[in-house]
Specification:
Structural class: alpha+beta
Organism: Astatotilapia calliptera
Subcellular location: Cytoplasm, Cytosol; Endosome membrane
Shape: globular
Largest sheet: 5 strands, antiparallel
Number of helices: 10
Distance between the termini: 71 Å
Membrane topology: Peripheral membrane protein
Keywords: Cytoplasm, Endosome, Lipid-binding, Membrane, Phosphoprotein, SH3 domain
Protein name: Neutrophil cytosol factor 4
Order of helices and strands: HEEEHHHHHHEEEEEHEEHEEHE
Length: about 325
């Protein structure tokens, strides 16, 4: 590169805002147990103004960003770039089969290289709105505390009884195990880690060794938010009721595919259908994402008429077998 070009590049960089990201490194991965379980990357971002902060991004967010940048700046003729085009770094491709944690771990070096090259592109690319929003620390990012750091705190409880969780969000405990506490979820449930597994468990099954700090006991720790979905498996012999706790906000609209997969896992039955009750008490079959949207809208319209815990979804799922067309009566 010629000296005049170097001077022009340095001048362009000097004029960039102080909050422009100039480097990003993946510090850890973190499992999220939602309606569908996934891993996200904990990324430390450094800005031109020398500030540092953490953001949390899934692979699909990398993928979406890359598609946007390709549409805006890629050139069909790489040998002859235009004034508003550049050569983007390659993004590691999607992987559809395999252990999710191993896949996330294996992607760390490649994604670190991708971000390094991305933030080394011309300054006019660094000003792109999509790129800046990807590396911007949202309010949700700033409120979250990395789980790896939280595990260092010596706040502990000891299991007094065996406890088998009903969902992936709940820990399995054996009598005598020591659980390292992370935070209080609500008046009855705590979040902790044992045997390299993290999840929630009922407080009545454990004995205090060292309590949580006062702020965490009041639920102000900035950790994951657990929301609970009331589910009913309707059979001719009776009703099996479950509360499925997931690391999702109450406002989320899960996909039909994710809900079906989770209910099959919860009730250990493959041949099932999803339903919800309308205001008249009739079961309405759910067949796609549009039906899920209708169920959620109906649940929100009725939420003022039904008293529920603050962390419970305003809609409920009624699960039947796919061949069962009869209607069962339940008490919600």
């Amino acid at each position: 590169m010629s000296l005049p070009q170097q001077l022009r590049d340095q001048s362009d960089f000097d004029q960039l805002p102080l909050n422009i990201p100039i480097s990003a490194t993946i510090a850890d991965i973190e499992e999220i147990k939602g309606f569908i379980d996934y891993f996200r990357f904990v990324i430390e971002v450094k800005t031109k103004g020398e500030s540092k902060y953490l953001i949390y991004r899934r692979y699909r967010e990398f993928f979406n960003l890359h598609q946007i940048l390709e549409a805006r700046y890629s050139s069909e003729n790489l040998a002859k770039l235009g004034p508003n085009t550049c050569i983007l770094p390659p993004l590691p491709g999607k992987i559809f089969l395999g252990n999710k944690k191993e896949i996330a771990e294996s992607r760390i070096p490649e994604l670190n290289t991708y971000m390094k090259r991305l933030l080394g592109l011309p300054t006019w690319v660094l000003l792109d709105e999509a790129l800046r929003m990807f590396f911007y620390q949202t309010e949700q990012d700033s409120e979250h505390q990395p789980r790896a750091l939280r595990r260092l705190r010596p706040n502990t409880r000891k299991a007094m009884f065996d406890f088998r969780g009903n969902s992936k969000a709940e820990l399995n405990l054996k009598k005598g195990e020591v659980i390292f506490l992370l935070r209080r979820v609500n008046v009855d449930w705590l979040e902790g880690t044992v045997n390299n597994q993290t999840g929630i468990f009922p407080e009545t099954f454990v004995k205090i060794i060292k309590p949580l700090p006062e702020s965490d006991s009041e639920g102000e720790s900035g950790g994951h938010t657990y929301s609970c979905l009331r589910c009913f498996l309707l059979t001719p012999s009776g009703v099996d009721t479950r509360d499925v706790c997931v690391q999702e906000d109450l406002s989320i609209q899960p996909s039909y595919k994710d809900l079906l997969s989770r209910m099959r896992n919860v009730f250990k039955v493959d041949d099932i259908a999803l339903n919800y009750r309308d205001p008249d008490g009739d079961l309405i079959r759910i067949l796609d994402d549009e039906d899920v949207q209708l169920m959620i809208k109906e649940g929100r319209r009725q939420q003022d008429k039904v008293k529920r815990p603050v962390n419970q979804f305003p809609w409920e799922l009624h699960v039947t077998t796919t061949s069962d067309l009869s209607v069962y009566n339940t008490e919600a």
